[in-house]
C-alpha cells in the first residue's frame, strides 16, 4: 500500500451565521470574511503539516486546486508544490491536480510541472482535474466545453513534454504556432499522471487508455466500488493486467487514542467538511452540459444524497470517512481495501476546522500504528472487475 497525505488547505473561520445566511463557501461567499492575518498563519501551518508528513513516512504529499472558495485556499497548487520541493527530500510532490479544463494556457501548466520536476529532483506527480462546475462560472469558461478542453489540454501537455522537435497545435480550443517546451521534465517520458473520477464512464476509459492512476472522490463505498470496477474493466478490456496501485482511494481520516475520544473530537471536523465546506447546490456542481447524458443518468440513479443531508453516522457507515482508535481505523480500512481493491490510500487528515494539535496527533497515530499494519495490503490482493 502506498500512503499519500492530502491537503485541501481550508479556511475554517466562517461567520456564525454561515449556515443560515450563505448557500455555499464557494463562488458567492464574500471574500470580506478572509482575515488576512489568520490566512497568513494558515498557509505556514499547512505547509508545516505537509513537510511533517514526509518525516512520518508518507510516500506522497499532495495539494490541489480550487478557486474562489473557503473550501480550499490553493488557486495555484504549483506554488505550494514549489514551496515543498526544496524543503523535502524523499516523498513524491503530488499536484492533484491542475484544473486544466479552465486554464487559458495549458502550456503554462506543462512548463511549471517540468520546472517542479527539476526542483524536486524527479519527485513530481502531475494530477489533472476538470474543475468543479462552479469553477467554470468563476473562470468564464462554458462548462459544456469542459470535456473537450480537458482532453485536448491533456494531449497537448503530454506532447509538449515528450516531443523532440517544435510543433504546431491548431484545434477548436487552443491555437499555438510554436510549441517548444523548455525545460523538459526530469522524469521520462513524463511525470506520472493522476485523474479523479466521480462516475463518468468517459473518465474511466480515458484514464485506462492512457495508463494513468484513477482517484476516487468522497462517496459511499458501493458507488466507489462501481467506479473502481469500471476503471478496472476498462483496463482489462485493453488486455492489460490492472495494477492495484493505479486505484487510489480518497478518504478523510481521524485517529485518537480511543474510539470514544476520536468520535468526540472528530465529529465536528467531519461535519464541517461535509456540511459546510462541501455545502454546494446541484446546479453549482453540475451545470447543464458539464456531464454527458449517460454519466448524469448513472449518477442520478445512484441514490447518493447531498453531503449536507448525510449525518455523521451515515458518513462513517457509508465509507465517506474513517474515525476511531488505531485499531478501529486499521480494521475499517482493511475492510474497505478488501471491498474496493485499491493499492493507494489518499488520506485527508487536516479536516475542516481541526486544530493543529489534533491533526498532528491523529497523523502520528496513523503513521506509527495504522500504516505499518496496512502496508502489505493492495499489492498481492487483486479484485476482479464486475461483469
UniProtKB/TrEMBL annotation:
Residues 43-338 form the Luciferase-like domain. InterPro entries: Bact_Lucif_Oxidored, Luciferase-like_dom, Luciferase-like_sf. It comes from the Bacteria. This is Luciferase-like domain-containing protein. It comes from Streptomyces graminofaciens.
Amino acid at each position: 500500500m502506498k500512503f499519500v497525505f492530502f491537503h485541501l488547505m481550508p479556511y475554517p473561520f466562517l461567520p456564525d451565521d454561515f449556515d443560515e445566511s450563505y448557500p455555499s463557501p464557494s463562488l458567492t461567499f464574500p471574500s470580506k470574511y478572509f482575515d488576512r492575518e489568520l490566512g497568513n498563519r494558515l498557509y505556514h501551518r499547512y505547509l508545516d503539516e505537509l513537510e511533517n508528513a514526509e518525516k512520518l513516512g508518507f510516500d506522497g504529499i499532495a495539494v490541489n486546486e480550487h478557486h474562489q472558495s473557503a473550501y480550499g485556499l490553493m488557486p495555484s497548487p504549483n506554488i505550494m508544490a514549489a514551496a515543498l520541493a526544496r524543503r523535502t527530500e524523499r516523498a513524491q510532490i503530488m499536484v492533484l491536480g491542475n484544473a486544466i479544463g479552465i486554464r487559458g494556457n495549458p502550456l503554462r501548466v506543462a512548463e511549471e510541472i517540468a520546472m517542479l520536476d527539476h526542483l524536486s529532483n524527479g519527485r513530481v506527480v502531475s494530477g489533472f482535474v476538470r474543475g468543479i462546475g462552479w469553477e467554470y462560472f468563476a473562470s468564464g469558461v462554458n462548462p459544456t466545453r469542459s470535456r473537450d478542453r480537458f482532453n485536448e489540454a491533456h494531449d497537448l501537455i503530454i506532447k509538449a513534454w515528450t516531443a523532440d522537435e517544435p510543433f504546431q497545435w491548431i484545434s477548436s480550443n487552443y491555437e499555438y504556432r510554436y510549441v517548444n517546451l523548455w525545460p523538459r521534465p526530469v522524469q521520462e517520458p513524463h511525470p506520472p499522471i493522476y485523474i479523479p473520477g466521480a462516475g463518468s464512464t468517459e473518465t474511466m476509459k480515458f484514464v485506462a487508455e492512457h495508463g494513468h492512476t484513477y482517484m476516487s472522490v468522497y462517496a459511499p463505498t458501493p458507488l466507489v466500488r462501481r467506479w473502481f470496477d469500471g476503471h478496472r474493466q476498462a483496463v482489462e478490456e485493453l488486455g492489460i493486467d490492472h495494477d492495484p496501485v493505479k486505484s487510489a482511494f480518497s478518504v478523510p481520516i481521524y485517529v485518537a487514542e480511543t474510539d470514544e475520544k476520536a468520535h468526540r473530537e472528530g465529529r465536528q471536523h467531519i461535519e464541517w467538511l461535509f456540511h459546510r465546506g462541501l455545502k454546494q447546490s446541484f446546479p453549482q456542481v453540475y451545470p447543464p452540459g458539464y456531464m454527458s447524458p449517460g454519466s448524469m443518468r448513472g449518477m442520478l440513479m445512484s441514490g447518493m444524497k447531498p453531503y449536507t443531508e448525510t449525518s455523521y453516522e451515515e458518513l462513517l457507515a457509508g465509507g465517506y470517512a474513517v474515525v476511531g482508535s488505531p485499531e478501529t481505523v486499521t480494521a475499517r480500512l482493511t475492510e474497505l481495501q478488501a471491498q474496493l481493491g485499491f493499492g493507494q490510500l489518499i488520506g485527508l487528515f487536516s479536516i475542516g476546522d481541526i486544530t493543529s494539535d489534533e491533526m498532528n496527533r491523529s497523523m502520528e497515530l496513523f503513521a506509527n500504528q495504522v500504516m505499518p499494519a496496512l502496508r502489505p495490503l493492495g499489492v498481492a490482493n487483486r479484485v476482479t472487475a464486475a461483469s
